[in-house]
Structures are given as C-alpha cells and as structure tokens.
Specification:
This protein has 67 residues and is an all-alpha fold. 84% of the residues lie in helices and 0% in strands.
Length: 67
C-alpha cells in the first residue's frame, strides 16, 4: 500500500472515531449545569445580579474615560 493511501485511510478512520464526541461533551456540561441548579436554586438570580453590577461598572468607566 502506498504512503498516500495509508495516510488517507488513517484520516478516514480517525474521523469515524471522533464522531459523537461533541454530544458527549455537551451532555457532561448540561448535567453539571443541572446539578448546580439543583444544589443552588438561586444561582441564576445571583448570576444575573452580578452581571448587572459588572455592566453598570463598565458603563460608568466608559462614561468617565474621557477625563
């Protein structure tokens, strides 16, 4: 078998082995998110509050940046 054919075959089989990997990763992330939400049900409001405060600080910094 020529070198080019071996490389082409290796690339095809590698693609087959990797199929479905993203699904497993997304599943793990979603399961972790559900676990956090079950353990800390008020996590979403806390996150929203922290983002609001961070954005307010950012907007203030932009408004005084010309000084």
């Amino acid at each position: 078998m020529s070198r080019q054919r071996r490389i082409a075959k290796a690339l095809r089989t590698r693609g087959r082995r990797q199929r479905g990997g993203a699904l497993a990763e997304y599943t793990v992330v979603v399961l972790l998110l559900v676990l956090v939400l079950v353990a800390y049900p008020d996590a979403i409001p806390q996150l929203a509050k922290a983002l609001r405060e961070a954005y307010a600080s950012f907007a203030y910094a932009l408004s005084v940046s010309w000084i």
